[in-house]
Write a structure and sequence with these properties.
The protein is mainly β and 122 residues long. 0% of the residues lie in helices and 49% in strands. The radius of gyration is 13 Å and the shape is globular.
Length: 122
């Protein structure tokens, strides 16, 4: 019913910035919480950030707070993740996901994108 497609990943130097986008299609984008998760090699999937349908009260993992910013443009059916001051440990596949309510754990999300690779070099 819902298709989520991430884009914007790539290779960047430590300290650099990157903006990920997630385009949604298939059903209305409004009224859903959108989240970003990531999974690094040898690690479990972890929560990165989430934002309510209204855009209010975004929530971030401690590891990215102050460096990453999540935002959404409901008119464009798109959610963004602005990543600044990138570190090598940010290297991972980043996934966007949709949930009916605000949440920070993967099981709360109903739809997932295919992921986009982010690699941060030293």
């Amino acid at each position: 019913q819902v298709q989520l497609v991430e884009s914007g990943g790539g290779l960047v130097q430590a300290g650099g910035s990157l903006r990920l986008s997630c385009a949604a299609s298939g059903r209305t984008f409004r009224s859903y919480t959108m989240g970003w998760f990531r999974q690094a090699p040898g690690e479990e999937r972890e929560f990165v950030a989430a934002i309510r349908w209204s855009g209010g009260n975004p929530y971030y993992a401690d590891s990215v707070k102050g460096r990453f910013t999540i935002s959404r443009d409901n008119a464009k059916n798109t959610v963004y993740l602005q990543m600044n001051s990138l570190k090598p440990e940010d290297t991972a596949v980043y996934y966007c996901a949709q949930a009916p309510v605000a949440g920070t754990s993967a099981p709360e999300y109903d739809y997932w994108g295919q992921g986009t690779q982010v690699t941060v070099s030293s």
